[in-house]
Amino acid sequence: MKTFLDWSAYDTYGIGDAYSGIPATGGNYAKAVAVCMHSRDCHKTGKGVMCPSYRITGDRAHSTEARVAAFKAALNDGSDARAFADPRLDEAMDLCVSCKACKKECPSSVDMTLIKTEYLAQRHELVGAPLRTRLFGGVPEWTGRHRALLRFAIMLRNRVAPLAKLAESWLGVTARRPVPEPAPKAFARKETGATGARGEVILFVDTFCHHFEPEVAEAAVEVLERAGYGVRIAEPAPTDAEPNRPLCCGRTYLTTGLVDKARGEAARVLAAFRGEIAAQTPIIGLEPSCLLSLRDELYSLGLGPEVGDLGKQLYLLEEFLAREHQNNGLRLELKALDAPKALLHGHCHQKAFGAMRAMRKVLGWIPGFSYDIVETSCCGMAGSFGLEAEHYDASMQMAELALLPAMRNAAADAPLIANGFSCRHQIEHGSGRKARHIALLLRDALA
């Protein structure tokens, strides 16, 4: 079976293991599906993230285990060339939000996020990618090539109710929430000429920070420079076919199953950082799903051994600061903030990759700063999931499990912290409160 992703990492899976049935077709992809050993941790509703869809429905049909069963059934029918158009798969995957919690919390590390990406790519090959999928997946290209037009269209849609209704009937984009609007001006680095006593770092400004919330990237530059680093902004390689379009991790393409597009963006990133890989320059990101995609999903795109070398140099802002504090004596001069106890929400991918420890450590540097962590599953926004008309209710149910009640109940002037762009959008929509990226909080606390 032709696959769109590289599943060779699963080549030896199942050898001498008590697998519960590797499907007859699908090769290494089938082995990735079959790692499920039916521990049923995906049916738990206590602490942790997994499984958001099971948590809101209480229905095992919307759990990781049930999704595995559906894939096994489809792949075992080796005579059917249209296995990925099987309606059982559509139903099983309908509420999967690609949170990566199963990879972290399942004892067998079922990577349903990647399994879903392959499924969507296969399905697009059979029946075509819907227009809405191409629109949501293509945000990096829309913002990079047609930014002014996109901003105008979104602003018009958000302010004229009949247009929002039209977009819902035509594209399936819910009229019940606003679509995030690009900022009036995109991120533009103001050169300071700072060389940095502690060395040089590269800031990878993702699509969302570049076009929607440039103040986050600006704050990160200020924090890093005050910490003693010379900051360069990641730029496309001189040989890039689109040298004026910012680099993108390809995350939006992966989550929508547009794998060839994702591979193209990843190849741009590798080309841009080829010299930095040799120099071992730290590369710092701000959006968890973007930076951690480069550290994880890049392996599945078949781009060669450089991927592993690049992954060793990639850090979220808080991860880099915590590492430098521990290993290289970084001491960031911070002042107390006049604020009550804050509330911290972790992005699903931060939790899946253990990055919340760095968040806690860095927040502990602010004198007198106290906060609570919201024990919650996925915020429910999950990229474009919460914008899809048929998923709006499920999205809000996920948020109402714990996140939105906690945000509403926080003190009126309490800082709300969330590093995920989608998380912040969901919090503002559901509670009327604005959450902020840790870069902004640290910038405000600079002595």
Automatic annotation (TrEMBL):
Residues 85-117 form the 4Fe-4S ferredoxin-type domain. GO terms for molecular function: iron-sulfur cluster binding; metal ion binding. InterPro entries: 4Fe4S_Fe-S-bd, 4Fe4S_Fe_S_CS, Helical_ferredxn. Keywords: Iron, Iron-sulfur, Metal-binding. This is Ferredoxin. It comes from Methylosinus trichosporium (strain ATCC 35070 / NCIMB 11131 / UNIQEM 75 / OB3b).
